[in-house]
Amino acid sequence: MEAGGRLAALSFLLSVVFRSCVCKIDPAQIDPLLYEEQLLWVSGAQGEVNTYRIPLLSFTPKGSLLAITEGRKSTAGDVGAKFIAVRRSTDKGATWAPTTFIVDDGLQPDGLNLGAVVVDEEVGSVIVVYAICFHLYQCRPASTMMVESVDDGLSWSKPRNLSVQLGVKAFAPGPGFGIQKRYEPAKGRLVVCGHGTLEGDGVFCILSDDHGQNWYNGAALKSIPYNQKKKAKDFNPDECQPVELTDGSIVINVRNQNNYHCQCRLVVRSLDGGLSLPVEGLYFDYTLVDPVVAAGALQKDGVIYFTNPANEQHRINLTLRWSVTDGKTWDKKAVQIWAGPSGYSCITSLSSGSAEDRKYIYVIYEKGHKDYRETVSFAKIHLFGGR
Ligand SMILES: *[C@@H]1O[C@H](CO)[C@@H](O)[C@H](O)[C@H]1NC(C)=O
Ligand SMILES: *[C@@H]1O[C@H](CO)[C@@H](O)[C@H](O)[C@H]1NC(C)=O
């Protein structure tokens, strides 16, 4: 082959390898293997933190991984003063830098609550959205806050109060990740979904079309009765995780707080980039049995992945499922990640499109022997059985 031809062939090969693609995966190839696991945080083991809870996991535009969690200062409860703790890995989860505390709410009686991490790949930033004074315990009003990193998670901005733009409302983002739309409609939009107070509950999404400068209120799927004390079995959508499908729709997997209709997950879909969540599109996923908890979800190369403690009563049995039919059906070969106590979870993957990055997903979850709040654990999953 003459030099020009070789160059053309090489550049074609490189473009195939490095193009980020929606490559079809043969369903039979998926055979997830727990490849390695390590504890990132152990509750009670370090200085001023009583309990680490609500772990989030994200990729960064430069291919690092960020693990983000609440450091609850004096109790394990949701109310109380906290830090936001971060650890960072630049080698695909093999090693992790020591913890840095990026937000400290001082001694607030009703401090911060995580939260959602959202990556803007167009400008290369990482944003963490969280609530303060969400429970209105000895404080008022609740505020929605954000911090931002433009250097791959090394340093973080001062907290900014998004309630100035959004209006005052108790909003608890996530827990999990927000998305940046990769497909039309509204390509490039940041979509962060979360829930309201226990009475004024429901799924609510906030949106930004300018990389997080300005935020506005998008879709709402309200609980029934709204703003009234709930009874058992009322319709009460709560903590949620959105993923974007390759057709540009957003599917949100939601905690069914009062076990309305089933002890399982409820699913709702937005066709307009997070502006609305039509109730006609809502369904209950009977396969995804759930003890009422925050779960993890991810769309990668056209496959949906889902993690939760797969048990109707107890937070045990952290299980990974996958679907090659956009969540309509789930593969029968579910993989158990941890049989014992397990709580909240979050999934991410690196998005370079390289052959290496297509092989793995990463899961962070609350894990224990007697109680799921004992540790926060990181699991690297090989999707093709180590092959
Ligand atoms: C955030 O902004 C809202 C609306 O202006 C305000 O009511 C609230 O007190 C602010 N919160 C904080 C922590 O400054
Ligand atoms: C754990 O999850 C698997 C997969 O769904 C299920 O078959 C099994 O019964 C579950 N075990 C417990 C103890 O919940």
From TrEMBL:
Keywords: Carbohydrate metabolism, Cell membrane, Cytoplasmic vesicle, Glycoprotein, Glycosidase, Hydrolase, Lipid degradation, Lipid metabolism, Lysosome, Membrane, Phosphoprotein, Repeat, Signal. Residues 1-23 form the signal peptide. The keyword Signal applies. The keyword DNA repair does not apply. It is found in: Cell membrane; Cytoplasmic vesicle; Lysosome lumen; Lysosome membrane. Catalyzes the removal of sialic acid (N-acetylneuraminic acid) moieties from glycoproteins and glycolipids. To be active, it is strictly dependent on its presence in the multienzyme complex. Appears to have a preference for alpha 2-3 and alpha 2-6 sialyl linkage. Belongs to the glycosyl hydrolase 33 family. This is Sialidase-1. It comes from Xyrichtys novacula (Pearly razorfish).
